[in-house]
Amino acid sequence: MTNATPNDLPHILLIGATGRTGRLILTSALHRGHKITALIRPSSSLPSVQTLSTIQGSPLLAADIFSALSTITGPIVIISTLGQTRTSGNPFAATTSPPLFMSASATAVVEAVRTSSANVQKVIVMSMFGTGSSWQNLNFLMQWVMQVSNMKQTLEDQNAVDGVIRGSGVRFVMPRPAMLKEQVGLPVKALGDSGEGAGFMPSISAQSVAEFMLDAVVSDEWDGKTPVLMN
Ligand SMILES: NC(=O)c1ccc[n+]([C@@H]2O[C@H](COP(=O)([O-])OP(=O)(O)OC[C@H]3O[C@@H](n4cnc5c(N)ncnc54)[C@H](OP(=O)(O)O)[C@@H]3O)[C@@H](O)[C@H]2O)c1
Prior knowledge:
Blueprint: E1 11-15, H1 20-32, E2 36-40, E3 52-56, H2 62-70, E4 75-80, H3 101-115, E5 119-125, H4 140-148, H5 151-166, E6 172-173, E7 176-177, E8 179-181, E9 189-190, E10 203-205, H6 206-218, E11 228-230
Parallel strand pairs: 1-2, 1-4, 2-3, 4-5, 5-6, 7-11, 8-10
Antiparallel strand pairs: 9-11
Helix pairs in contact: 1-6, 2-3, 3-5, 4-5
The chain binds NADP nicotinamide-adenine-dinucleotide phosphate.
NADP nicotinamide-adenine-dinucleotide phosphate is lined by residues 16, 18-22, 41, 44, 59, 81-83, 85, 97-98, 101, 126, 128, 154, 158, 177, 179-180.
């Protein structure tokens, strides 16, 4: 982490601020002194805070992301914590998000960044352990669950996000957290892209992921990387 003061901290455009990890990022980023603009669906809401601007729109529309960017001056980092949702946490529960909606959003983000004159420094996207090259080091049980349950839709979407962001030419960080758990932030163990050495059933607190992603806003250590994260 650098010693940036609130005056030179990048403004964060947060997509997914109403989700589990997104809310933690929002709270911690405000605490760290970032100004935040959250792009949320018209059906969702966030509490009113002085340094938080909430803009209603769709993360799938480049025009809505472009509009949100045009309200911000100075350096910007875009953070996306969108997630495929289901009716419950059970992997077999019915999906409530369209297939490939996260990758549609990633495409929209890239288009907005390319066409906007805003000073976007990087895009930080929350991926997951199992995506891309990390599939080989996910244990057989999780591989099986992801292939036979409705988590398959999440995996397909995360793999598509990975391809869109990597192929975009936009500076990125795409952490691949292990299974999320509650608890406060714990020290983060960042493995390589493939997650070699992760062990049988690694996990990480959502708070730790939030802090890692915010550290990556002001550090170039993880630029262009997709580290597997665990506690
Ligand atoms: N769960 C795990 O163990 C785990 C582990 C590693 C990585 N991950 C990844 O981490 C990411 C974040 O997970 P999370 O549990 O923090 O997220 P989450 O609580 O499920 O939040 C989902 C977010 O996506 C938005 N969203 C869902 N469907 C949408 C749609 N059709 N259009 C627009 N927005 C939509 C939601 O907005 P609304 O509030 O408006 O619905 C919400 O802000 C996911 O990509 C997941 O794959 C999860």
